[in-house]
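Justification of resources, computational component.

The compute hours requested in this renewal are based largely on the per-chain cost of generating structure records like the one below. Each record pairs the submitted sequence with a full structure-token output. That output is archived, and it is also reused by downstream analysis tasks.
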Amino acid sequence: MNKRQALIAAALAGICAGTTLNAAAHDGPAPGDKEKCYGVAKAGQNDCASSDGAHSCAGQAEADNLPTEWTYVAKGTCEQAGGSVKPIKAGTAAKPATQP
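The structure output for this chain reads:
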């Protein structure tokens, strides 16, 4: 392996490691006084992976208010917005939540 190949390999390894750490940090505990709220995210505005495994990235919600999609909200406001702090179980059919 020549120096150029080694440099490229090191750069790619650094990018992959940084992406993995960033993804792991984003899916961890809610920042500050926020909580995950399922069923209130708008299409394309979810914060991370869906609870049913349909996708693993932010911004991929296909419809508004799907119960498998979540976004961070201020603690204590999730139920008031018509959402739930508990995800639905994997394999359960996801349908848009109805607004009261």
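The two ends are 63 Å apart (CA to CA). The chain has one helix and two strands.
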